[in-house]
Amino acid sequence: MQRKTIFPQKGLPYLLLAPQLAITAVFFFWPAGQAVWYAFLRQDAFGIRTQFVGFENFADLFADPYYLQAIWTTVFFSVSVTVLSMSVALLLAALADREIRAAGLYRTLLIWPYAIAPAIAAVLWLFLFHPSIGLLGRGLNAMGVAWDYRLNDGQAMLVVILASAWKQVSYNFIFFLAGLQAIPRAVLEAAAIDGARPIRRFWTVVFPLLSPTAFFLLVVNIVYAFFDTFGIIDALTKGGPGKATETLIYRAYLDGRVNLDLGMSAAQSVVLMIMVIGLTIVQFRFIERRVHY
Amino acid sequence: MATLSLSGVRKQFGTTPVLHGIDLDVADGEMIVVVGASGCGKSTLLRIVAGLETASAGSVRIDGRDVTGLEPADRDIAMVFQNYALYPHMTVFENMAYGLKIRGMKLPDIRRRVDEAAQMLEIGPLLDRKPRQLSGGQRQRVAMGRAVVREPKLFLFDEPLSNLDAKLRVQMRAEIRRLQKRLGVTSLFVTHDQVEAMTLGDRLVVMHQGRAAQVASPMEVWGRPADTYVAGFIGSPAMNFLAATLLEGGGAAMLRAGPVIGFARAVSAAAAGTAVTLGIRPEHVEPAEGGLPLAIDLVEPLGSETVIHGTLPGGEVLTARLPIPASGIGATMPLRLPPEAFHVFEGASGRRLD
C-alpha cells in the first residue's frame, strides 16, 4: 500500500522533513562521525597534543585481554538478561491471557516497571540486596550465606542481571500479551479438539504463532542489554568488583570519562555501533521474511 | 460412529440463561441440523457437546459414555469451524496430521490416512501449501479433511459454509451431505440458513430462545410446524399469519374482517371463541374468481413465479407466491385460501392445534 503524494512546490517536502533531519544530524550523525574520527586519533589526557594513529587504537583494543574479557562479560550478561526477561514475560503473559479476575489491574501493574528510570530501578534493587541495609541482603547474611555483591563477582553479576531483566520484563510482557491475544480462539479450540493438552498446545500452536513477536523481542532485548543497562550497572556496581560486571558500554564510558583516553573510547564506540547496525540488519532481514507464517 | 444423547442441558452465562434444558437423542450415523436465528443458543449447544463450554446442568453422552465433565480431547470428536481455524504455521498435511500425531500414530499410517482423505476431498495437490496460500473453498476442504482423518465418533459443524460465496456454498453443502452419508459418521450441524437445514438434515432441531421449538424431519417441520415461530422461520417467503376466532365445533374460524374460513379437519383441542392464529404458506394461496380481494402493494417477479404482497380487507398483510405474472401495484386480486392448507395455532401460546 504505497501512495504517492505530489507536492506542488519542490521545497515543501524538504521543509517538512527538515526538523527530523536536523535532529538526526545534530544528535546522531555529528557525534557518530566525531566518534569515528576520534577512533583514529590519539590524544593526551589534557587534550593538548593530538596525533593520527590509523587503526592502532583498534589493534590495541583487540590485543587487550581485559577488553576481550569485557566482550565475554557482555555476552554472558546479555544472554542472561534476554533469556530471563523474555521467559518470565512469556510466563506472565500466558497467565494474564487467561480469563482471570481483575485481569485489567494485573496487567496494568505488570506494565509499571517499564516506566521507572534505570537508576531508580537500580536503587530499588540496591535496597533489596545491599548486605547491610538491603532487606534480602541482610536476610541472606542472617541465614549464613556470605552475601555481598560488592565483593563477590558472581553475586554482583546476579544482581545486575536481575535488575536489568526485571526492568525489561514489562516491555516484553506487553508484546507477548498482544501476540497471544492476536491468536484466534478457534485455532486453540481446534487444537484442543484435536487432542492437544495445554502444554502441548502451547509449544505446537501458540509458541510458533508467537515466534515473530519473540524474534523481534529477542533483538530488542539484546540491544537493551548491550546498550541501555549502563545506568543500572553504574548505580549498582560501577563495573566491579574488579571487572566482574564491566560490559562493553561501561568500559567505553570508563576509558573516555574516567581514564580520559578519548581515542580508545571512540574506537570502542565504533565497535559497538557496528554491532548495533549488524543486529538491526539481522532483525529487518529476518522479520521481513518471517512476519507472515 | 456413535450415538449422541443430551438430557436436560442448560447453560447460563452469569445470570443470563442461554439454554433452558435441551433433550436430544441422535441415532448412529444420523445428521442433525440445529437451526435458529442468531442468539438462540445453537452455537452454545454445539460447544457444550464439543466440551469447549461446560453445561450448567444436564448431561452429554457420546456412545452411551457420559462425557459431560471430560475435556474436548477425551471426547473423540472432530469439529469444523466457521472460520476454518486452520493452524496458520503448518502445511495442509501438518494440519491434517496434527490430531493423529498427538494420538501417537506412526508416520506411515498418518501419511496413508491423510492421503486417503486428501484424495476424497480433492486437495491432494495442496498438501505442501500453507493455509494462507489457499482460497476460502480450499481452506474449507482442508478443515473438513482435518476432521475426516481423525475418524471420530462425532462430527460437529459450526456454520462451516457461512464464509463461502453463494455458489460455493451450494456446492460444498452437497459435498458435505455426500461425505457424511458415505462415512456414516453421526453429525451435528449448526446453521442459521434454513435452506442448509432443510437440505442437509435427517432431522432438524429448530431452536428458539434457548429451547428446542421442534425436533423433526425437514418435511415434517415444514408440513406440521409445532408453533408459530417454527412456521415463520422455515419456508421462504415466510408463512402468512392471520388472527381469527375459532367457531363452534372447531371446523372453522372467523377472520377479523368477517369472512369465515372453513378447515379441512376440525380442530378439537380448543373451545369455541378461542383466539387462534391461522397460518398459510404463500405458495398455497391461489388466484380464484370470487376469492378474498387482496390490495397489492408490492410485486416481486422471480421469473418462474411472482411474489405479491398486499393487504386483505380486514387490514391483514398477506404474501402470495403465484406461478403466474401478476397485475401491478394498486390493483386488487381475488385470492382463494384453500382450507386444507391452513395451520391452526393457539393465539396466546402460538402452539399448534390439531
From TrEMBL, chain A:
Residues 71-283 form the ABC transmembrane type-1 domain. It comes from the Bacteria. Part of the ABC transporter complex UgpBAEC involved in sn-glycerol-3-phosphate (G3P) import. Probably responsible for the translocation of the substrate across the membrane. Keywords: Cell inner membrane, Cell membrane, Membrane, Transmembrane, Transmembrane helix, Transport. It is found in: Cell inner membrane; Cell membrane. Belongs to the binding-protein-dependent transport system permease family. The complex is composed of two ATP-binding proteins (UgpC), two transmembrane proteins (UgpA and UgpE) and a solute-binding protein (UgpB). It is a multi-pass membrane protein. This is sn-glycerol-3-phosphate transport system permease protein UgpA. PANTHER family: BLL4140 PROTEIN (PTHR43227), SN-GLYCEROL-3-PHOSPHATE TRANSPORT SYSTEM PERMEASE PROTEIN UGPA (PTHR43227:SF9). Its main location: membrane. The chain crosses the membrane at residues 12-32, 70-96, 108-128, 205-227, 266-287. InterPro entries: MetI-like, MetI-like_sf, UgpAE/MalFG_permease.
TrEMBL record, chain B:
The gene is ugpC. SMART domains: AAA (SM00382). It comes from Falsiroseomonas selenitidurans. Residues 4-234 form the ABC transporter domain. PANTHER family: MALTODEXTRIN IMPORT ATP-BINDING PROTEIN MSMX, SN-GLYCEROL-3-PHOSPHATE IMPORT ATP-BINDING PROTEIN UGPC. Coiled coil: none annotated. It holds the Pfam family ABC_tran. SUPFAM superfamilies: MOP-like, P-loop containing nucleoside triphosphate hydrolases. One of its GO terms (molecular function) is ATP binding. Belongs to the ABC transporter superfamily. The keyword NADP does not apply. This is Sn-glycerol-3-phosphate ABC transporter ATP-binding protein UgpC. Keywords: ATP-binding, Cell inner membrane, Cell membrane, Membrane, Nucleotide-binding, Sugar transport, Translocase, Transport.
